[in-house]
Design goal:
The chain is α/β, with parallel strands linked by helices and 292 residues long. Helix content is 60%, strand content 12%. It has two domains: 61 residues, ATP synthase, gamma subunit, helix hairpin domain (Helix Hairpins), CATH 1.10.287; 215 residues, Pyruvate Kinase, Chain: A, domain 1, CATH 3.40.1380. Strand 1, helix 2 and strand 2 form a beta-alpha-beta unit. Helix 1 packs parallel to helix 5, helix 1 runs antiparallel to helix 6 and helix 4 packs across helix 6.
């Protein structure tokens, strides 16, 4: 049975841990708000760009581009977006579970985030490139990732490229998701609940007419790289919002568990102290009765 000194020492240790997790929770909550705002702010632009491209491809007709070329072959590249740090619950574990399902022999990985790179190296899979991105992702970082993936595809080193990331749904829910990145297939118009509804409706109904200068093919050829760059950028925003949300929830749970453990230890300490005092009183009473 532990002594009162051991229980006091453990209570002090748990209190110190609770202070650390509480501070990390507050920091994660601050970063989470900014990351969620950035991710949600990018969705209307992404949806409107999809709508515009869908309408442009509809008017162009038989348009061909190297990034849209369908190729045969089993070798594919996967861009894995993870976090640099842990302490964010099961976020990275769920993502790495999806990575483990990829065929080891026919898949080459492009990672953004230290956790993904470490997992790929530890499981002895082929790592083509490793990128980093900040807490506030930059468009230049997304453009570098997109350009490297496009070079792999254009040089015919892979037959296709996929995006694997953690999609932000809510503060409590984040899910791993895989999207096809290359080759660019049929672009579907995606509606959004955050602005742009009237423009989206006009475009998808074919009510808008476009005049292309210097031509539809030249315009679409210039838009496709930007479309891919921004797609990676939006994925980085979604992944960062998921990371900070998961870390805030994990640190909150850790703090709550520490507080509950402190209460349980304090109760055990009081019971032990009460038992010791009772025994001392019994010893005094017994000695007094023995002395007559």
């Amino acid at each position: 049975m532990p002594s009162t000194r051991d229980i006091r020492r453990r209570i002090r240790s748990v209190k110190n841990t609770a202070q650390i997790t509480k501070a990390m929770q507050m920091v994660a909550a601050s970063k989470m708000r900014k990351a969620q705002e950035a991710a949600l702010a990018g969705r209307p632009y992404a949806a409107l760009m999809n709508s515009v491209l869908a309408e442009v491809t509809h008017h162009v007709g038989d348009f061909s581009h190297p990034l849209m070329e369908q190729r045969e072959g089993a070798r594919r590249a996967v861009i894995v977006i993870s976090s640099d740090k842990g302490l964010c619950g099961a976020l990275n574990a769920n993502l790495m579970r999806e990575v483990a399902q990829c065929d080891r022999q026919s898949t080459v990985f492009i990672t953004a985030g230290r956790k993904a790179a470490q997992f790929v190296a530890r499981t002895k899979r082929e790592l083509a490139a490793e990128f980093t991105y900040k807490d506030t992702p930059l468009y230049a970082e997304a453009r570098a990732i997109s350009r490297f993936a496009c070079d792999l595809f254009l040089n015919e080193q892979v037959a296709g490229v996929d995006l694997l990331f953690t999609n932000f749904i809510s503060t409590l829910t984040q899910r791993p998701q895989t999207l096809s990145f290359l080759p660019v297939g049929e672009i579907a118009a995606v509606s959004t609940d955050v602005g742009g509804d009237e423009i989206h409706g006009a475009l998808t109904k074919g009510a808008a007419e476009f005049l292309f200068e210097p031509g539809a093919e030249a315009v679409l050829g210039a838009l496709l790289p930007h479309y891919l760059n921004f797609r990676v950028y939006q994925v980085l925003l979604e992944a960062k919002a998921s990371e900070h949300s998961a870390r805030m929830v994990a640190m909150k749970n850790a703090t709550d568990n520490a507080q509950q453990l402190i209460k349980d230890l304090t109760l055990d300490y009081n019971k032990l102290r009460q038992s010791m005092i009772t025994n001392e009183l019994l010893e005094i009473s017994t000695a007094a009765m023995a002395m007559g």
